[in-house]
Predict the 3D structure of the following.
Amino acid sequence: MKLALVHDWLTGMRGGEKALEVVCERFPDAELFTLVHVPGSVSKVIEQRPIHTSFVQRLPMAATRYRHYLPLFPAAIERFRFDAFDAVLSLSHCVAKSVITPPGVPHVCYCFTPMRYAWDQFDAYFGPERLGAAGSAVMRPIMRHMARWDRDTSHRPSRYVAISHYVAGRIARYYNREASVLYPPVQTEFFQPDGSPAEGSALVVSALVPYKRLEIAIHACEKARVPLTIVGDGPERGALERMATPNTTFLGRLPDSDLRRLYNRASVVLLPGEEDFGIVPLEAQACGRPVVALNRGGALETVIPGRTGVLVDQLSAESLAAGITEAMNQTFDRQVIRAHALQFGRERFGDQMETLVASMAPERSGS
């Protein structure tokens, strides 16, 4: 079976790209379609296959400003052609799920989330406090159009598979489609305890984007009087650095080896915002470290209160600070925490993804 893979964009190794990496390992002959590819930004396993890009790739400053071309994404994704393929697997958090496939070619969408900024997080990305009143007013009809297009093309996949039950609920709400659940892969064989003692600090590993709510983590650690290290980069870095106290250290993007060392030395790892799933909490737990997270979204499926971390009820610095203090005063069993994370390993994900692709019998070939 000739398989096509579709991913929104390839500009770094985040959670979605780590899932794609496992898929590429299991299906080395698959070809990859994406709006924008920044060479060298993803793993060699992904880079070494044929990668087809859209016209967005050729627009000015696309490598760094591709998000500015968001209104063009629907037209770009619909131009890809899949007549030479027997099946299509899209890995989508934006527009990849809306590719047009020929009759009889099955298309399964592995959905990270329906488009956040078009549906329920407009203000976090495009609100007046971010773009000003005029800029926000310009973006509102654009995002309304994107939401309508997203809904109107939701019938295109033959089947949806969600990364969590939380995302399956969003798919039902916005697309009126059912979705099974396949948890994303975690590098549990790489992220593991190294015997280091906790150093009395908190750690955040995240893209620096609005919905992650990293300002809450900064203020919470200030209230709890706990040093905070932030790993990651993104458009919010400047604003976050300006609001932070000397208690907060920004390290930018780091290789996994450095990240593993930081996980092992942190007393707690923080997840301040509402996540669709959350790979970082499980990487931390694979290292035996507890997580303090908001009691919503994917954290309900990855953190066990009292055993692998603490869940807080309010999206506020005060609530998160109380959770940090509670976690740091509690004794956690590192092996118990790690045992929980092992359920989410890469091997499990790869096996289940192989089963999923095998079920995509191409109708037009008669097989």
